């Protein structure tokens, strides 16, 4: 039986992917170097290979050994401010590693590829809702490193027997509704994760980065999508590629923006108490507002979100955080 290769499958989103694939009876091989991933999140039935996506010989061998038929590529570095101070790390871990992986796919005849891209490719869009054809002008190395990978995929698909779907994630949050995995990085920087840590007293306070953005309450606005809805988009993309669909790019978000203060309020509702917050300057590389127009994903792949409710998202993040503390 052929298998799916999930790179970064020990990470937050990748581990949800493993479970979704295993749940529907697919064979899963995880490649992860455990730099930020957690071995215990991978899922017992998945085959685990510890190593780097950039190690082309390793990847070629595992493609042959496990008869890999599709690659879902999550591995990479994902922290926007860190990309500003360590740009070459981001071009190595995201762009160059992806190049090696794509090359291994071409050499071994893997035809299907699903790529974790990002809303950061749009930079500061001049529109309130971003569609796939909004100009791509990333303002930080993270967004650029991902956009360069999209370009490599586009050019490769034109030249070889190879098709891909790039999914541009907006802000991913929440945890597996069955409680099997969730965001587990102790030094995570993402808002809902940090707010959950603060709510449980594991961090002393939450910084609000920027209160002078041109947004209704002055704080940054994002489109927070539940990780399970995001994973559903990956399954649809994989099935479309297997069914012969052409290469394509989709935004993944709900089409509604929430400010930092609105997220804080939701976490306070879920926790049942106020959060200690501190107003801080803007972070490097942060755009004021990013909200997805995801019409294309809904119409083309028939994506139907199931968890489009900030309280559901925040409660699941908080539940996972509690579980982490208990283990
Ligand atoms: N943010 C914040 N405090 C935090 C973490 C994030 O105010 O501790 C803000 C950040 O400035 C942005 C939004 O929350 O406006 C989402 O940031 P996050 O790091 O979660 O994701 P990003 O949009 O940078 O990928």
CATH architecture name of the largest domain? 3-Layer(aba) Sandwich
Number of helices: 10
Estimate percent helicity: 25-40%
| Total E-strand runs | 14
CATH topology of the largest domain: Rossmann fold
Describe the global form.
globular
What proportion strand?
Answer: 15-25%
Query: What distance lies between the first and last C-alpha atoms, to the nearest angstrom?
Result: 35 Å
Calculate the mean pLDDT score and round it: 97
Name of the top-level CATH class of the largest domain: Alpha Beta
What's the arrangement of strands in the largest beta sheet? 3-2-1-4-5-6-11
Rg from alpha-carbon coordinates = 19 Å
Q: Largest beta sheet, briefly?
A: 7 strands, parallel
The small-molecule ligands in this entry are: uridine-5'-diphosphate
Write the layout of secondary structure elements.
Elements: E1 3-7, H1 12-23, E2 28-32, E3 47-50, H2 56-65, E4 68-73, H3 80-85, H4 87-108, E5 112-118, H5 141-159, E6 163-169, E7 171-173, H6 191-199, E8 206-209, E9 221-222, E10 224-226, H7 227-242, E11 248-252, E12 258-259, H8 260-271, E13 277-280, E14 289-290, H9 295-301, H10 310-326
Parallel strand pairs: 1-2, 1-4, 2-3, 4-5, 5-6, 6-11, 7-10, 8-13, 9-14
Antiparallel strand pairs: 9-12
Helix pairs in contact: 1-7, 2-4, 4-5, 6-8, 6-10, 8-10
Bound molecules: uridine-5'-diphosphate.
């Amino acid at each position: 039986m052929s298998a799916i290769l999930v790179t970064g499958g020990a990470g937050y989103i990748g581990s949800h992917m493993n479970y979704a694939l295993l749940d529907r009876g697919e064979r899963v091989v995880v490649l992860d170097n455990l730099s930020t991933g957690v071995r215990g999140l991978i899922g017992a039935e998945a085959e685990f290979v510890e190593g780097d996506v950039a190690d082309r010989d390793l990847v070629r061998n595992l493609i042959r050994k496990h008869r890999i038929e599709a690659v879902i590529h999550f591995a990479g570095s994902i922290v926007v401010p860190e990309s500003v101070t360590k740009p070459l790390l981001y071009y190595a871990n995201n762009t160059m590693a992806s190049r090696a992986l794509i090359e291994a796919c071409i050499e071994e005849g893997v035809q299907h590829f699903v790529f974790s891209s990002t809303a950061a490719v749009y930079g500061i869009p001049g529109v309130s809702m971003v569609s796939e054809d909004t100009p791509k002008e990333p303002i930080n190395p993270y967004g650029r490193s991902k956009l360069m990978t999209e370009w490599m995929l586009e050019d490769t698909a034109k030249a070889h027997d190879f098709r891909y779907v790039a999914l541009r994630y907006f802000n991913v949050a929440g945890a597996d509704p069955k409680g099997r995995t969730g965001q587990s990085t102790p030094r995570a920087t993402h808002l809902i994760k940090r707010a959950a840590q603060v709510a449980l007293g594991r961090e002393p306070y939450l910084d609000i980065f920027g209160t002078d953005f041109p947004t209704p309450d002055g704080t940054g606005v994002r489109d927070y999508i539940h990780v399970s809805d995001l994973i559903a988009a990956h399954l649809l993309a994989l099935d479309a590629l297997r069914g012969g669909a052409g290469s394509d790019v989709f935004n993944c978000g709900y089409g509604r923006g929430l400010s930092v203060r609105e997220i804080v309020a939701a976490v306070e509702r879920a926790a049942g108490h106020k959060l200690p917050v501190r107003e801080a300057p803007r972070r490097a590389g942060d755009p004021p507002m990013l909200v997805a127009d995801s019409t294309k994903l809904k119409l083309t792949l028939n994506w139907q979100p199931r968890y489009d409710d900030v309280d559901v998202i925040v409660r699941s993040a908080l539940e996972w955080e509690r579980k982490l503390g208990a283990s």
